[in-house]
Amino acid sequence: EPEVTQTPSHQVTQMGQEVILRCVPISNHLYFYWYRQILGQKVEFLVSFYNNEISEKSEIFDDQFSVERPDGSNFTLKIRSTKLEDSAMYFCASSEFSGGVTEAFFGQGTRLTVV
Amino acid sequence: AQTVTQSQPEMSVQEAETVTLSCTYDTSESDYYLFWYKQPPSRQMILVIRQEAYKQQNATENRFSVNFQKAAKSFSLKISDSQLGDAAMYFCASPNRDDKIIFGKGTRLHILP
Questions:
Q1: pLDDT tens across B36-74, in order?
Q2: Which residues of B are less than 8 Å from A89 in CB distance?
Q3: CB contact under 8 A, A106 and B45
């Protein structure tokens, strides 16, 4: 069964450093998303991406964050100058159609710990 | 704004019994989807079941079924014959027109042996 793959599964970084979280969406999917979940809290939308551009972003997704699809398979989330409060589980998701039409498939998540 | 509300932070059920997790939502859309996701201790997000709002028939997937009450904007998940592997966080979710999935706060389900 096709799946969304995220690497690494766990990333520890020093405060102020830059991190790149990587995702390989399902190959025929066109819509890509990043969500985050701070420990014990709800899952929060960060950004959606379609046709090589951001289609929607939340207030969390400020200038510290950026997304990129550098080639035909990877979808990355870059966090510049990480802060302690960026520690969370980050989920990548992809869907064949827009989220209102079909389900989004989620990756297993990357646990980011900022120290 | 679209909202999804889960009013039960935690629930427990005896193994082999049936449990129902509640969810209410608010949307101005006439056609939409509703999902239940399961998040086990591994922290993955796994789709359990989905319901299309224009379908009157409640969705069913093996031991999982929903009670969809469109007028009341209610979307509860029923788990029959609960198993130890069902222990997880369960999130009710609904996409909005901007391709953003709105999640509830989750219900942590404990299965008692």
A1: 999 988 778 888 999 988 888 999 999 999 999 999 999
A2: 43
A3: yes
